[in-house]
From TrEMBL:
Any one GO molecular-function label of the UniProt entry: cobalt ion transmembrane transporter activity
Record keywords, A-Z: ATP-binding, Cell membrane, Membrane, Nucleotide-binding, Repeat, Translocase, Transport
Organism of this sequence: Fontibacillus panacisegetis
Purpose: Probably part of an ABC transporter complex. Responsible for energy coupling to the transport system.
Gene3D superfamilies in alphabetical order: P-loop containing nucleotide triphosphate hydrolases (3.40.50.300)
PROSITE patterns documented for this protein: ABC_TRANSPORTER_1, ABC_TRANSPORTER_2
The name this protein goes by in its record: Energy-coupling factor transport system ATP-binding protein
CDD domains xrefs: ABC_cobalt_CbiO_domain1 (cd03225)
């Protein structure tokens, strides 16, 4: 069988760079295959994808060596329009892809370019929208939809063109866990029923592995460094070698002393089985491991920074107005890291707006160190509470990186040596010091995220609210940044993580509060919250893979299994940080 995509000794160098971003790539992708291209940021994944869909060289010029063939034909002589008929692309940010005033118009756009007859066009629009479960939204504006719905509309637009290769560039980046699970299920259904060749570029390892994958292609520094089935690469422990996260349940088994060579079906927690002769021994070994779990430390009630009591808020007034936040109560102590979990639209960002003063509560009270802050201005609150938005482009106002970080200091009258010291320190902390004299436009989305955090960190707040702090970051940058956040918490700074990233909560939060429909439905240890299927389903989260594994194996206390993992992760990070500090002495 002839490959549908074939790279032969392929390299590409951007015009503005001296070295190739993709080099010596040899890869055959067969018709109907489902391929996951993985690797850290800057490894060349997106560049390789742009070569497939024609954005390189038509939008990004440079030097190409070697060959790229689609269905056995060299692509160098084909226009981007010809390629788009074969390769459908779904971008990380679906808003950047919409051109129609309604969902139906947007899905029809590519067919209009292809001069499809109107009589054929409408049935194809209906069929594509029905396939992704969005037919009832045909007349709605695409920008009014949720993140998961937007991704579905983008997918419908590609399906309507009948492209036989579907290329997904981080399709889960802006989706909550429930929407991400649905999106991966939808992609898998289309792959199976439509006979499509599917290429996925994605950071969320467990979400991708939740559905069957034929092969994983790992890239590092522009080269393909590993290719294999999920079972082969997971058993070999290959993913962490290239800055990718190993599934959490496999890490937990390692902490418990379980050897992977005696296990099968490693890619999903419910499917993992042990060879018969060691099965019972392994279960007892896990039970013994979790029996030594340390007790969780209680919240220090004597040193509360932020206290929220019975706060409610509605965006509209009147008798029938619906509360976006309803009778919410919780607190954050000095040096504490609290994860505020919930799906898109649960009320998390509205609550952060109430804390920062953007909105005024309809009822209830917000206190800072025991003082009611109802009369505090936004500026006064900003001296104590920093807020970093989910989308850095909504915060950045300056053209140069150094100017962006210095802006808040200048507004407060901090200049000269003190300003330079604090700007340099914030840039170093967030890994941006080497780029201090660059224009902001040269940064990636993840780097812009760190820049926006630097611009708040430089002001030295006591509490920092981070809205989806790790969105758009690869595992290495995620770990570096969150380890840094943990260090600040150890020094007394408090953090509220507004997130639906359950890995972040498991690895870095002291406690979790869960929101659904504007209410706090749970506030407990992270282990207890994310092991409770009732809570996770109500909040459109996803029960952690650790808990799912423990239940599948009949472990007596799934929550304690999760807590054992959390304790081992924190202990491991402390040891690594200690070794790092010792190496610098």
């Amino acid at each position: 069988m002839q490959p549908v995509i074939s790279f032969r000794n392929f390299s590409f160098r951007y015009k503005s760079q001296t070295r190739p971003t993709v080099k010596n790539v040899n890869l055959n992708i067969m018709p109907g295959e489902k391929i996951w291209i993985a690797g850290p940021s800057g490894s060349g994944k997106s560049t390789l994808a742009h070569c497939i869909n024609g954005l390189i060289p038509f939008s990004y010029s440079g030097e190409i060596t070697g060959e790229l063939l689609l269905n056995g034909q060299e692509v160098s002589g084909r226009s981007i329009f010809e390629r788009s008929r074969r390769v459908g692309t779904i971008l990380q940010n679906p808003d950047a892809q919409f051109v129609g005033q309604t969902v139906g118009e947007d899905v029809a756009f590519q067919m209009e370019n292809e001069e499809v007859a109107p009589g054929e066009m409408k049935p194809r629009v209906y069929s594509s929208l029905d396939l992704v479960g969005m037919l009832q939204y045909e007349e709605q504006g695409p920008h009014d939809l949720s993140g998961g719905q937007k991704q579905s509309v983008s997918l419908a637009g590609v399906l309507s063109t009948q492209a036989d290769i579907l290329l997904f560039d981080e399709p889960l980046a802006n989706l909550d866990p429930a929407s991400g699970t649905r999106a991966m299920g939808l992609i898998d259904e289309i792959h199976k029923t439509g006979g499509k060749t599917v290429i996925l570029i994605e950071h969320r390892v467990e979400d991708v592995l939740g559905q069957p994958i034929d092969r994983i292609v790992i890239m590092s520094e522009g080269e393909i460094v590993a290719i294999g089935t999920p079972e082969e690469l997971l058993r070999g422990g290959v993913l962490p070698n290239y800055g990718l996260r190993q599934p959490l349940y496999l890490n937990a088994l390692g902490y418990a002393g379980i050897k992977l060579e005696h296990l099968n079906n490693l890619s999903t927690p419910e499917a993992v089985t042990a060879e018969k002769e060691v099965s019972q021994d392994y279960k007892q070994q896990i039970e013994s491991w979790i029996s030594f779990v340390d007790q969780n430390r209680e919240q220090d009630k004597s040193n509360i920074l932020l206290d929220i009591r019975d706060v409610s808020f509605s965006y509209s007034s009147g008798k029938n107005a619906k509360d976006a936040v309803k009778e919410v109560s919780f607190s954050i102590g000095a040096g504490e890291r609290v994860a505020l979990l919930g799906s898109n639209g649960a009320g998390k960002s509205t609550l952060s707006g109430l804390i920062t003063g953007l909105f005024k509560p309809r009822s209830g009270e917000i206190s800072w160190r025991g003082e009611n802050i109802a009369d505090w201005s936004i500026r006064r609150r900003g001296e104590e509470i920093g807020y970093v938005m989910q989308n850095p482009n909504h915060m950045i106002t300056q053209h140069m990186i150094r100017d962006e970080v210095a802006l808040g200091l200048q507004a407060r009258g901090i200049v000269d040596q003190e300003k330079e010291r604090r700007v340099n320190e914030a840039l170093q902390i967030c890994g941006l010091y080497p780029y201090r004299n660059w224009p902001v436009s040269a940064l990636s989305f993840g780097q812009k995220k760190r820049l926006s955090i630097s611009s708040i960190l430089v002001l030295e707040p006591k509490l920092m609210i981070l809205d989806e702090p790790t969105a758009g970051q690869d595992y290495r940058h995620y770990t570096e940044f969150m380890d840094f956040i943990s260090g600040l918490a150890d020094q007394g700074m408090s953090f509220l993580f507004i997130t639906h990233d359950m890995h972040l909560a498991l690895e870095y939060a002291d406690r979790a509060a869960v929101m659904a429909n504007g209410e706090i439905i749970a506030a407990d240890t992270v282990a207890n919250v994310l092991s409770d299927r009732t809570i996770t389903e109500q909040a459109r989260l996803r029960e952690t893979s650790l808990s799912r594994f423990a239940k599948a194996w009949g472990i007596s206390s799934p929550a304690q299994f999760v807590q054992a993992f959390i304790n081992m992760e924190q202990r491991s990070k402390m040891l690594n940080m200690g070794e790092g500090e010792a190496s610098h002495e």
